[in-house]
Each structure stands twice: as C-alpha cells, then as structure tokens.
Design a protein that fits this description.
mainly alpha
Length: about 190
C-alpha cells in the first residue's frame, strides 16, 4: 500500500516554542558578546520595572483598598528603594542579580529534569533532560563563584545557559514538527 504525504499545519505551540527558543538564544549570544552592557541593561530594565510596580502599588492603595493603604505604601516604598538602587548603581545590581540568576538557573534545571520524567515517553524529550542537567550545572557554578571577581564571568555562564536552553527548545520544536508517514489501516468492505 502506498503511503500518502500529508501536509499538516504547524500548530501555534511549536511556532511560539521556536520564537522563544530564538529569543533565548539571541539573549545568550548578547550576554556573551556584550557581558557588561547586557548586565547593566538588564539591571536598568529591572529597575524601571520595579519603579512602575511601585507606582502601581501606590495607585492601587490610594484608589481601591481603603484600610490597606499603609501596606501598599510600604511595598511601593520597598520597590522604589530597590529601583533607585538599581538605576543609580547598576554594577551593584549586576552582582546581586548574578546570585539571583544562579539560583534561578538551578531551579529551572530541576524543573526541566522533572519535566523530562513527565514527558519521557515523548519523542526527543532527551533534549529537555540535557538542558536541565546543563542548566543545573551552570547554576551551581554561578552560585559557587559568587560574589564574582569579574561580573563578566557570570554573564558568560548565563549566556551559555541561555544558548543551551535556546538550542534544546529549538531542537524540541523541530522534533515536534516532524511527522513520519504511517501506513493507513486496511478497510474492510462489508
């Protein structure tokens, strides 16, 4: 029996997986090529995000929750102090972010290893396991070298972790898109 070629529309999940893989990969390359610039940029972005979150908490406390304004003002103040520190001294923020990123890498790797065991029956799920092991290892190295003698060293490790995640997700997305033709079951004419 002849197998027919079937065109399958790629679902949006694999498209977004490919897009996210490319974005993570590019961030990894930028972290390696421009380590200090990338780090300071991330610290500044986080500073502005904290500033906007503080303003949002303050606004919420003023307009919507009477009686809890003090709590919202306290949170807004903490966000504001953190934002001002990150914006005025981004290098200190980079050093602190290095530790946070190390912890996040360890956590991400553990989650990915757990995800592998959930998806181990799926085709090409080994890429998730490899990424999880690499990510945990990089996170341990980042945390082990904190505080860093040179902030660029941490960014190289983070860049390698991002590139590893991007490549594994890209390979997984391409593996999900591959559909091998199978023989159609024989129909019986009764």
């Amino acid at each position: 029996m002849e197998s027919e070629s079937v065109d399958i529309d790629v679902n949006p999940t694999t498209r977004w997986l490919i897009v996210s893989a490319i974005v993570v990969f590019v961030c990894g390359v930028l972290a390696i090529v421009l380590p200090l610039t990338f780090s300071v940029g991330i610290a500044a972005l986080l500073g502005w995000l904290l500033m906007f979150a503080g303003v949002a908490h303050l606004t919420y406390g003023i307009h919507f929750q009477r009686g809890t304004f003090g709590w919202h003002a306290l949170v807004a103040g903490l966000y504001g102090v953190a934002a001002i520190n990150l914006l005025l001294n981004p290098l200190l923020g980079v050093v602190l972010l290095a530790l946070i990123v190390g912890v996040v890498l360890v956590g991400e790797g553990i989650v990915e290893i757990g995800l592998f065991f959930v998806l181990r029956e799926s085709r090409h799920s080994i890429w998730i396991l490899i990424d999880g092991i690499v990510t945990v290892g990089l996170g341990i190295v980042v945390c082990g070298h904190w505080p860093p003698a040179a902030p660029e060293f941490i960014q190289y490790l983070v860049g390698i972790g991002f590139i590893s995640s991007g490549v594994s997700r890209l390979l997984l997305a391409f593996a999900m898109r591959v559909v091998e033709p199978t023989e159609a079951p024989l129909r019986r004419n009764d």
